[in-house]
């Protein structure tokens, strides 16, 4: 009854409908609804107490989002299905939401444009993004993903690529500018089941064992001790969960250290496999994607797929068999 009371008030119902479309700040919601910030904040507080929405801090800004799991969330989603899309208030809210998202996209595009030349230069050095994407899809197969965690999400490319497979996803990044780009890209692709958060991937703000897929895409070469990030990623996995690492193979392009802040010049199969095993994972597959150019300046991209073996162990032990792990290299 408390849930229905919280959700049934007209302004709060409008808030829930807006937050169903993605992450928004109090400022966004104030602008869309045309109400005072204290009033909006009060409604958000009541919705939070009813466990209908979740709040997370990103620097000085607080973002709000419709809660993804639980009976209350299911009830709200069922309630929102009965909200008429032709209602004048709903239509007006939708128009103002679109304006807020356009402003967000313009800010993100301005940042992207300032850095586009640098990113284009790096892309020309290694295998095409489409080739890397295809390799990741082949490795993962068509198995549905309940929950995805993308570490160092950047522009949100992985969140977009795998949107057809996961039920919910979180992308984290240390750069607030990149998070603005990711949010704009998710808005553009109409992906509402993914959210992005500001966080340190070496010290994640999650309990752990909550994701059945974790991805680390072109991030580890920025770290002096990549094995710490791998261990933290492994901590996030449920039993039987998978980790995909996409990064550069060993190379000799020293200028990437000074001009692009690369700390590590790629990773060998052996080094990465050692770190994955030390984190308690089994390496299942490794794929090298070579650059198209033959100038000697190209970079090979490697994709590693590893798995948490705990579910396999439990299955084998319950059958009275000695545990053996397929896929070790």
TrEMBL record:
Molecular function in Gene Ontology: DNA-binding transcription factor activity; S-adenosylmethionine-dependent methyltransferase activity
Record's protein name: ArsR family transcriptional regulator
Native species: Rhizobium etli
Domain HTH arsR-type per the UniProt entry, residue ranges: 1-87
Top-level lineage group: Bacteria
Gene3D superfamilies reported in the protein's UniProt record: Vaccinia Virus protein VP39, Winged helix-like DNA-binding domain superfamily/Winged helix DNA-binding domain
SUPFAM superfamilies, alphabetized: S-adenosyl-L-methionine-dependent methyltransferases, Winged helix' DNA-binding domain
């Amino acid at each position: 009854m408390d849930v229905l009371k919280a959700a049934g008030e007209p302004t709060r119902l409008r808030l829930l409908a807006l937050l169903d479309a993605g992450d928004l700040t109090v400022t966004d919601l104030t602008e869309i609804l045309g109400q005072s910030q204290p009033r909006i904040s009060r409604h958000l507080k009541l919705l939070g107490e009813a466990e209908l929405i979740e709040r997370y801090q990103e620097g000085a800004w607080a973002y709000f989002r419709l809660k993804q799991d639980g009976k209350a969330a299911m009830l709200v989603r069922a309630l929102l299905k009965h909200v008429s899309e032709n209602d004048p208030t709903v239509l007006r809210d939708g128009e103002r939401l679109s304006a807020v998202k356009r402003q967000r996209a313009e800010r993100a595009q301005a940042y992207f444009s300032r850095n586009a030349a640098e990113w284009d230069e790096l892309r020309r050095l290694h295998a095409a993004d489409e080739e890397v994407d295809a390799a990741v899809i082949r490795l993962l197969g068509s198995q549905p993903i309940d929950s995805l965690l993308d570490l160092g999400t950047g522009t949100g490319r992985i969140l977009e690529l795998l949107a057809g497979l996961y039920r919910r996803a979180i992308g984290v990044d240390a750069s607030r500018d990149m998070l603005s780009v990711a949010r704009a890209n998710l808005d553009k692709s109409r992906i509402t089941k993914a959210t992005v958060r500001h966080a340190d991937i070496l010290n994640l703000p999650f309990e752990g064992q909550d994701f059945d897929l974790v991805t680390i895409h072109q991030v580890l070469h920025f770290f002096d001790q990549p094995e710490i990030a791998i261990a933290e990623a492994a901590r996030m996995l449920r039993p039987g969960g998978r980790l995909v690492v996409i990064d550069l193979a060993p190379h000799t392009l020293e200028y990437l250290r000074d001009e692009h802040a690369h700390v590590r010049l790629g990773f060998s199969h052996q080094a990465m496999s050692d770190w994955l095993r030390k984190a308690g994972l089994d390496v299942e597959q490794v794929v090298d994607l070579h650059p198209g150019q033959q100038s000697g300046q190209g970079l090979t991209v490697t994709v590693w797929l590893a798995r948490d073996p705990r579910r396999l162990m439990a299955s084998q032990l319950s059958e009275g068999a000695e545990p053996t792990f397929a896929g070790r290299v």
